[in-house]
Write a structure and sequence with these properties.
This protein is an alpha/beta fold. The protein is built from ten helices and 13 strands. The strands form two sheets. The protein has a nine-stranded mixed β-sheet with strand order 5-4-1-8-9-10-11-12-13. Helix 4 links the parallel strand 8 and strand 9. The C terminus is likely disordered.
């Protein structure tokens, strides 16, 4: 099959129930507490990222699993409405769609997820022709999908053999082991997306710059998302950092996934790592303007306006490594 997709996103798709201004301590015993706001929104790292990419103009498809239930129908409808190709999403009548409740407080949140059919996804369920049709293949929520992990390296290598590049966003490991076959899968990964806490957990280094150096030695280009401090990457012998723009933060749910979409959009246009970081930071920051993971996602034109303001911080053209 000839290339017909810019991006294939593999992973979780489930509704998010986002509650804003939740109490710091939850009261059990059937005591009712009030919040400042709430929303039902597109959830799942992969689904949010796919929506962001489609909004930036990338031809984007999602491969995942939903149930044949109201939650699944909500997700399918919202993804299609936002321009994501859902032909590779499997619908399971025997499993329920996953559900996430995010209790958001400013730039922090507590997340409780019922996995449902999220963990049912396997690489054998993904049509190789869809993989071969993409310029880039990205997988999300590695630790929530243990059945996906054993075949993921092979899928990535198949994508590479078709001329595609690959990326992986780990997201949090609820089990706290930070393993699940990750070392093997990294052999097929071109770009590894992590936040500071995830980078520390898998590298053993609490300093994000040191963590990026450790992770770079394992093969992929490590991109570490730092929230209000922007993002950094270890690009060969260079450590590249881009600061975040000043924005009024309403909700950071999905900001990291929207960052991923911006970074990959730039890379697919041939941008260097510095400017790709800038577009990622712009997209992630702008997504925090509105509640939920997708409502604040920017268009490419909006994001590029912010990138212009970040360019002076990038230090000019990339420097070559010392001999």
């Amino acid at each position: 099959m000839s290339v017909s997709l810019d991006l294939l996103v593999i992973g979780d798709a489930n509704p998010d129930v986002v509650v804003h201004g939740a109490p710091t301590t939850l009261a059990y015993g059937q005591a009712e507490q009030l919040a400042k706001g709430g929303a039902l929104a597109v959830g799942g790292s992969a689904a949010i990222m796919a929506c962001a990419a489609a909004g930036l103009g990338l031809r984007t498809a999602l491969a995942g699993v939903v149930g044949d239930d109201p939650g699944g129908r909500f997700m399918m409808g919202e993804l299609a409405r936002r321009g994501v190709d859902i032909g590779a999403v499997a619908i399971r009548e025997d499993l329920a769609t996953g559900l996430t409740v995010a209790l958001a407080r400013g730039d922090d949140r507590a997340i409780v997820t019922y996995p449902g059919c999220i963990a049912a996804l396997e690489t054998g369920m993904i049509d190789p022709a869809v993989v071969g049709a993409a310029r880039h293949v990205h997988a999300s929520s590695f630790f929530l999908q243990p059945r996906l992990a054993p075949g993921l390296r092979g899928l990535f290598e198949a994508a590479r053999s078709s001329g595609a590049t690959t990326s992986l966003d780990l997201n949090w490991d609820p089990a706290g082991t930070w393993d699940g076959g990750l070392a093997d899968v990294l052999h097929g990964v071109d770009v590894l997306f992590v936040n500071a806490a995830e980078a520390a957990a898998i590298s053993g280094a609490t300093d994000p710059a040191v963590a990026a150096t450790v992770l770079a030695a394992r093969g992929p280009l490590p991109v570490v998302k730092l929230g209000a401090d922007g993002a950094l990457a270890r690009d060969g012998c260079r450590l590249v950092h881009v600061s975040a723009p000043a924005v009024t933060v309403v909700d950071t749910v999905g900001a990291g996934d929207t960052f991923d979409a911006g970074f990959l959009c730039a890379r697919l246009q041939g941008w260097d790592v510095s400017r790709s970081l800038a577009l990622g930071v712009a997209c992630g920051s702008l997504s925090a303007r509105r509640p939920g993971g997708v409502a604040g996602q920017p268009t490419l034109a909006e994001a590029l306006t912010v990138v212009e303001g970040l360019l002076p911080d990038l230090g000019g053209p990339p420097r070559k490594c010392d001999p």
